[in-house]
Amino acid sequence: MPSYLEVGMVTIIRVFHKYSGLKGKLKKAELKDLINNEMNHFIMVKNETLDELFADLDQNGDLEIDFKEFITLIAMVTSACHDLFIPVQSKNTYA
Asked: Care to name a GO molecular-function term for this sequence (predicted)?
């Protein structure tokens, strides 16, 4: 049976490919849809913010977000939200 972490990793991969399709890369509109549909409780983007975010993520400058670039977003949002879910006094306690 897979662990919670493994299930989470598979979910991230599946969600990415749900929006990127067979090409395995996200255009700006696809990234916006993914964020608005799948991450809307953790991050909200407006068009101006999306332009900046997309430029920051697109490390190779190809105007698309590949999986490695997408994982950067996941890591940033997860890190920013960490303390909301694990209060300081219980960081050593796991569910």
From this structure: calcium-dependent protein binding
Topology of domain 4-84 in CATH is: Recoverin; domain 1 (1.10.238)
Q: Which residues pair with 77 in a beta bridge?
A: none
pTM of the model: 0.83
- The rounded distance, in Å, linking the Cα atoms of 76 and 53 is 11
Task: Report the amino acid identity of residue 85.
Answer: F
25, 65 in Cβ contact below 8 A?
A: yes
Domain ranges of the chain: 4-84
3-class DSSP state for residue 88?
A: helix
